[in-house]
Amino acid sequence: MPPSRDPEPVPLSAVIESSLNRASTPDPPLLAFKLSGRSYPTRSVRTNHPRGREGMMPELLTLCRELLNGLRSWPLYLWSPGPGTGKTSTALTLLDHYGHAHRGYSADVSEFMHGFADFAALPDLFRSAERGRYYRSSSYGCQTIWSSDLWGAVRRSPLLVIDDLRKPSDREQRLGDDHYGILKRILDERVARPLVITSNVDPWEPPGGGAPELVRLFDDRVADRIVCGTVLELAGDSRRRG
After folding, report:
1. Which neighbouring-strand residues pair with 198?
2. CB-based burial of residue 165 (10 Å sphere; 0-12 exposed, 13-18 middle, 19+ buried)?
3. 3-state SS track over 32-66
4. Is residue 117 within 8 Å of 162, Cβ to Cβ?
5. What domains sit in the chain, N to C, each tagged with a CATH number?
6. 52, 88, 170, 180: which is deepest, by most CB within 10 A?
């Protein structure tokens, strides 16, 4: 019997197309695509592309290819004011692509060790790891994950996704130093390396002037590190509502 061959990686365009199809409602709302240049945030550097999936898809595919081929800068900041516009789906699409391109790498949204993390949960996750209370099940049994293991995963992951960097709701406390410190270190560890951040925080200067919301929530250092990468706004109505 001839030796088996590994399956060919699925083309990125096909993965993105499939992911967006799964996320779509039967009659998906139209989306707008806006992309910034590499400069400090002002609304004038964003480009409005044709509304609708037909206008968005070629630009989105081109952007992803340019990032993966080193023609655009990381991190990729995916944001929209409201929910359901495809931020997380797009991030997971890229993570899926890396799963095909890097043998043995799995895009498992439940495991920080596999390249995906919920921003709000990061402080609790690292505190649990520091105390030896973060466990991961594997084929080898139950493994204790320490904070050094988490930071090792941050450094080694082919692609890291930080999901839902958001404004605290009225019911939530303000983002504390733990969130700031962890985010800043992740940005430091992933300089010029694949990192995707999804968010509802506007990185642009308000029309009337003043500091961008991203600066007010964190500071200039964090905001500048993010917007010196690639900023993509996915605008429009929620795709989750029929």
Report:
1. 78
2. buried
3. EEEECCCCCCCHHHCEECCCCHHHHHHHHHHHHHH
4. yes
5. 28-119+158-236 (3.40.50)
6. 88
